[in-house]
Predict the structure.
Amino acid sequence: MGLSTAYSPVGSHLAPAPLGAGAAHRRSAQPHRPRRALLATVRCSVDAAKQVQDGVATAEAPPSRKDCFGVFCTTYDLKADDKTKSWKKLVSVAVSGAAGMISNHLLFKLASGEVFGQDQPIALKLLGSERSFQALEGVAMELEDSLYPLLREVSIGIDPYEVFEDIDWALLIGAKPRGPGMERAALLDINGQIFADQGKALNAVASRNVKVLVVGNPCNTNALICLKNAPNIPAKNFHALTRLDENRAKCQLALKAGVFYDKVSNVTIWGNHSTTQVPDFLNAKIDGRPVKEVIKDTKWLEEEFTMTVQKRGGVLIKKWGRSSAASTAVSIADAIKSLVTPTPEGDWFSTGVYTTGNPYGIAEDIVFSMPCRSKGDGDYELVTDVSMDDFLWERIKKSEAELLAEKKCVAHLTGEGNAFCDLPEDTMLPGEV
């Protein structure tokens, strides 16, 4: 059953009128066909009693509906709007787990223009569950009350075939957390099924060039499952979030060097988002100089720095009583900005991407965090001018082995036969418990 409510907020650009009361509850037994392109009419929501001056617009009260919220309940068509003429085409962004803590920080960054730019109108499509639907309504109310001029549409639902229709970006945050006594293999299977279903929905109804960022853990293997279930979408368009790990590594290097972290560049996280991840200090730079020239304590780099980054999430849970939310939201925003703005000359960023065709000798057909650059068009290329030594390569191979083992655990979800789970060790992803 697909429960969906759409809103047409202030100044909505290329937005449909709100769904009528009868359309608020719909059954979805099969994927929907993509909608035909909407007419270029601009819609704006106002108080029904308010009159618009100079004949620019006329307003009509919509049919009575139980699910609308204040300003989203009345729409009218604008005949002219000079502001929107200078804006870009609407970008449609779906967020799963939209009632959760991470989304509570992220959504307002997206709506404000901080991520996609101050000339980029945005539509937010929020995916939740039946249990979280009332909370999604609360999220929509807060977005409504924030009066973001760039936020042109907000819709909420529990059916990915409805929420993902025609989207340009999918930020897949929602996943089941690891409970007490749960084996990691069981977590891979439970969450893997979620991302298999979402991959199928993306394949059926999303834009053919949709960009997908998987945040829900275990994010590398969940991203692999998702892309395997979306064969009509380029595998290169799928990412697993390792930007938070990169940010954590930059912070630790800055602290040790006694500089602010804007001086730290070229930091790579290699591998899995687990405690086998490899924060790369060999290729990193501080104020343009190799880290090993600035921080001469090799023992600290190989041991304390590496382990601090790998285990930072677990330490935060002990201190805070829950997994990171605000810093994760910041890192999601950073990851998107790295793809929609050109990478500074000589620098790069980390993201988990599909390894087939990689230049490093890493096993193909997995999702592995590697250094990337972007021209700002949403696409990326792998960096080739990196150095390797035995320390770095040995640890990369360990993370590779873990991801290959995870891949076998979810073979039944990727269409590659029966699953066989023999994980080398339990690496306890941050936030799993």
Notes: The longest strand covers residues 151-157. The chain has twelve helices and 20 strands. Residues 399 and 418 are 23 Å apart (CA to CA).
